[in-house]
Amino acid sequence: MSTVDSAVFQDIRDAVRTFVRDQVVPREQEIEDTDAVPAEIRQRAVDMGLFGYTIPEQFGGLGLNTYEDALLTFEFGYTTPAFRSMFSTNNGIAGQVLVNFGTPEQQREWLPRLVSGTVACFALTEAEAGSDPSGLTTRAKRDGDEYVISGAKRFITNAPLAEVFMTFARSTGADGADGISVFAVPAGTPGLTVGPPDRKMGQIGAQTSEVFFDNVRVPLTALIGGEEGKGFGAAMRSLVKGRLNIAAVCVGASERLLEESIAHAKTNRQGGTPIGEFQLVQAMLAESKAELDAGRALVLAATQRFDSGEDRRIGPSAAKLFCSEMVGRAADRAVQIHGGLGYMRGVPVERFYRDVRLFRIYEGTSEIQKLIIGRALIRE
Questions:
Q1: Which domains does the chain have, with CATH numbers?
Q2: pTM for the full model?
């Protein structure tokens, strides 16, 4: 349950909307060209509390619930995904590991720092452990009063910027999910190396890279929760909530794509006639509007059921599946409406077309979401 008054939250949402549209949107091309979010935008996000808005108030955060998180994320999704990526792992998959599973000492050590702008990353994915992380091979071997971690991760969001790595490793002799634990590994620990930023199709400015652990030694206190074998559960719980967040980002991106399409259809002419007067263009706009509204309604309903505890499995996967596929269709229509111009670099819809493709892959592919939903329905 949220601890923020509804009027206060509305003020927060209004401030975020204004900031995104007035300060971030005009600098999207700069972010694309430099592969980085400007320092002043980052600092403003820290000052607004965006690096810890889901973290409990006792640690300096805003304590927003999942429903409120979605409403804010609609606003974040309106601009380049690199903006949200700065603080998404703090509020989501990495930060929630600490919120839900950290010991009181670990929470006191790290959560206030995340709120103040320290970046956490979620080091789970490996070359042969993506959609099925139970097969990860990174090892954490106990040696006296330390663990020694060895292995490699890839596609780790914010790794080049991170100051703490929530690192998943196999620490027991058990196979599959039962043997996985999670450790807080500070950046700069000897043996921890971050590779160069990946060169990606889209989402430029949201840096990802490989991470290597070469006999990295951490104290026993780095084991999240102080108990081995709980890492897989921590990962899955964080990822389930993260799917709702991704779905909300897709809604925000769809709104932007629709607005860009409408503006172009009203001003661009063919044969002296605005293309918005052509019925087939209107049909594409109508399809994007209908799917946008459906996606928004689905996300809000799913987040309410998540917060109440009614559904924390099917709803998040259904929202992520529908919205990530929906925004891909919206981007395709937007490029089509823009015609040849929509294929040119520097035009927002071209960039969004590349950016949104990833939403169908990370936090669990569309195929994985279908399996989760189908299996859950059969069990029920």
A1: 6-115 (1.10.540.10), 120-229 (2.40.110.10), 233-379 (1.20.140.10)
A2: 0.96
